[in-house]
Every structure is written in C-alpha cells, then in structure tokens.
Amino acid sequence: MIALSPLFAYGSFMAWTGRWRSWTGELMLGPLALPITLMPALAVFLLGIGLGMTEVVSSTSPVAAVALLLVIAGLLLSFFTPRWWGPRWYREAERPFEPNLRDPMTAMAMASSTPAPPRGPLPPQFTGRPIDSWRGSFVQRDEKGMSTALARNGKVEGRLNLYEAGVTFVAEGLATRLEAPPEPILVESGDVLDVRVVPAGAGPDGKKRRGRGLRSLFKRLVIDTPEGPLLFEVQRAAVVQREIRDAL
Fold first, then answer.
1. pLDDT digits 0-9 by tens, 130-172
2. Going along the chain, which residue ranges are E strands?
3. Rounded CA gap, 61 and 82, in Å?
4. 236 and 129 share a domain?
5. Residue 240 and residue 207 share a domain
6. Count of domains forming the chain
7. In terms of Cα–Cα distance, which of 149, 70, 73 is closest to 104?
8. Mapping DSSP to helix (H, G, I), strand (E, B) and coil, where does residue 216 land?
C-alpha cells in the first residue's frame, strides 16, 4: 500500500505542475481527469491504509476516515469536474482536448470509430485475384518516427500482392485510419531486377541497421528496382522470394 502511494503522488504532482499534460487526451484518464481528481486522493488513502496496517498510526486515529473522505471527494470530482477545479493550465486549456494517439487504448478507440480512407483505383493489371498475397510491412526506416501507437516505428503495415504483371504493396490496417496512408507501391514485372533475402533488422545492403525498441525477428525481403531497393518484412521471406522469382 505504502509503496503505491508515491506513484500516485508523483503522477498527481506532474499533472498539477503541467509537466504531464498528455493524459488529457487519453481514453482512460482524460474524461474523468483522474490525475487531478482521484489519483491525489488515492495517494493519501493508500498512505493512510499502509500506516494503519503497519501500526504506525493507531486504529482509533482519524487518518483512515479522512483518507476515505478524500477518496469519496476525488470520485465525485472525477464525475462532476467543475470548471474551477484543477491547475491553471488545465482550467485555461482549450476544450475539447486533442486525443493522444500515442496512447494505445486511445488510438485503438479512435481508429475503430474512424472509417477507412478511400483508396485510389489501381491499374487493371493489378486488380483481381493475385497469384499470392502476404501480410507484412514496408520498411521506410528503422528509427523512431511514426506518430501513433498503432503504427510500428518506421514501417507501414499492409499486404504484398503478387500478380503476373508484377508486385504491389497496399497499406492496410487500423493505423491507416489515423494517418494518411502512403500511395500503393506498384512494381511491374519488367522492373523487378532481383528478389533477395537479408537478415532480420538489416537494410537492403544486408547490414544490420541501428534501431530502437523491439525489433522483428523475421528476415527481410528486398525487391530491387531501377529506382532503388524496396525493403519489406514478411513471414517466411525465403518462400516469398522463391514464389516471386518463379512467377516473374
């Protein structure tokens, strides 16, 4: 109990001083203003309970009763947060708050309620049923850079499709509902110079790239074109390589 109290107290302090403001746009914290309503009360409540359990304060001490009243007050404030409540930066902030799309729960909720963006027409030779199709990612870069929690750093998730006329990659998934998806990648069969497999986390040259966070363990597929190499992460990259080579 006592160990949790400083965590709630620290979060409340950061929120009141304005050092932590992103919570205003988060699905779980923002609507009830929990960091400036319930969290401070819970910090005091857990401290009081912990002191009572360790017998630092006696069972007849009013500390527990005061802590419980604070929790009740925090709950009421969270459900009926008046405009005069909270730090100055919060009271004077523009409403409604912008959703924090770096928060996974918020990003998922926003994406689920946002319609998929319209997709432009593809050339006739790249429509219809493909020879084969694979879920994967187009690797733009390996450093951090994407702006939502649903998007993987430096990668665009979608589907790699193999046609007799060539290869396409079309962005798909919930992340495309929060950010404008890139245009489909179209590579005609005559422009496929080579199809290679490089180690996981490597660039088109086969050398490991520096990156942050969790890295995929899948080997990467490289499609060489006259404009330069295209780098993808797909499962069973060697099988995909063989299928594309056999077809094209």
1. 999 999 988 876 544 446 666 666 778 889 999 999 999 998 8
2. 132-139, 155-163, 166-171, 185-188, 194-198, 220-225, 228-234
3. 32
4. yes
5. yes
6. 2
7. 149
8. coil
Residues 6+ apart with CB under 8 A from 195: 221, 222, 223, 224, 241, 244, 245
Write down how long the chain is.
Answer: 248
Q: Is the pLDDT of residue 226 over 50?
A: yes
Beta-carbon contacts of residue 102 (< 8 Å; ≥ 6 apart)? 22, 147, 148, 149
**Cα–Cα dist 216/167, whole Å:** 23
Q: What is the average pLDDT across 3-11?
A: 87
Read off the pTM. 0.66
Question: What average pLDDT does this structure show over 182-203?
Answer: 92
Determine how many CB atoms are found less than 10 A away from the CB of residue 49: 18
With beta carbons less than 8 A apart as the criterion, state whether 97 and 24 touch. yes
Q: Could you list the residue range(s) of the whole structural domain that residue 72 is in? A: 4-100
Cβ-proximal residues to 155 (8 Å cutoff; 6+ apart), any chain: 137, 138, 139, 140, 146, 233
Does residue 110 belong to any structural domain of this protein? no
Residues 6+ away with beta carbon under 8 Å from 61: 52
CA 232/CA 204 separation, integer angstroms: 9
Question: Are residues 240 and 130 located together in one domain of the fold?
Answer: yes
With residues binned 3-state (H G I as helix, E B as strand, rest as coil), the percentages for the chain, rounded to 5, are 35, 20, 45
Task: Assess if residue 237 is contained within a domain.
Answer: yes
Considering only residues 156 and 11, tell me which one the structure prediction assigns the higher pLDDT: 11
User: Would you say residue 237 has pLDDT above 70?
Assistant: yes
Q: Do 30 and 133 sit in the same domain of this protein?
A: no
pLDDT, greater one: 93 or 211: 93
Same domain, 130 and 95: no
**Same domain assignment for residues 94 and 25:** yes
Q: Is residue 120 part of a domain?
A: no
